[in-house]
Amino acid sequence: MQELIRVKNLSKTFKLSSKQQKIEKTNEKVRRAVDGLSFEAYEGEIFGLLGPNGAGKTTTLRMLATLIKPDSGDAEIDGYSVVTEPDKVRQRIGFLTSELKLEEFFTPNYLFDFFSSLHGVDPEVSARRKFELFRRFGIDKFAEVKVADLSTGMKQKTSLAVSLVHDPDIIIFDEPTNGLDVLTAKVVTDFLISLKEAGKTIIVSTHIFSLIEKLCDRVGIIIDGKMVVCDTLADLCGEKSLEDKFFDIFADYTEAKGGEI
Fold it and tell me: What is the phi/psi pair of residue 162, to 5°?
């Protein structure tokens, strides 16, 4: 399999404000969100990053999407560095996170056309792709409704469609089903499976065990900003469920850290 994503010793720290220090009851002035993270993802697979809230999943994906720069380390996306060649990386990826909001004044139609133009997509290709994606997600009935007036699920589906305007081969999704009802979540997960079947390479982050089990070929477990385990689901879990295996790993890690993280 061709290696399309290579993450090499990524690290990222953030300064803690005095207010954050007080809330978290710590004297630390710096928080290490990602600590020497390394892994690979291959063509045509779905790779899952699994970990508790605050483990460093979102920070990792933001670095891969070139939204923030690592303090050290690097990642190559289709051979291009996120540190030194961010523009080339952005041309090759689609990125979706629930924390990035669409401008609520605009409509799905306008946003799709705007981002298609931004990516230099041919207008005929864009129109055909918009028709296919809007019909699949049921956005067509709300195409001229302002984002502010859409339901949470429809906003998420619109964000998903907009992130794929340029038909990228590498797709990075942070918590793709976060906050969605079960029906909308199924539409999204089924679509991710269809993207994999079309040969796309996908990285998803989540803390939902069932999503990893349904979607992913391989999974990396992140705790405290570190990659603790990275393997196929079959080799990682054996006869155990992913949930049971995760808590075994979490307990071992916590014990090795002296009983707390």
Answer: -65, -35
Distance CA 204, CA 192 (A): 10
189 in a structural domain: yes
pLDDT digits (tens, 9 = 90+) for 11-65: 999 887 887 777 777 777 788 899 999 999 999 999 999 998 889 999 999 999 9
Whole-number Å distance between alpha carbons of 8 and 75: 6
How far apart CA 215 and CA 93 sit, in angstroms, is 19
The total domain count for the chain is 1
Is 0.85 topped by the overall pTM?
Answer: yes
In one letter, which amino acid is 248?
D
Q: What's phi and psi for 75, nearest 5 deg? A: -145, 140
CATH number for the domain including 226? 3.40.50.300
**Helices 182-197, 123-137: inter-axial angle, 10-degree rounding:** 140
Look up tokens 């990222």; give the residue.
12
The percent helix, strand, coil of the chain (3-state, each to 5) is: 40, 25, 30
- pLDDT band at 260; cut points 50, 70, 90: low
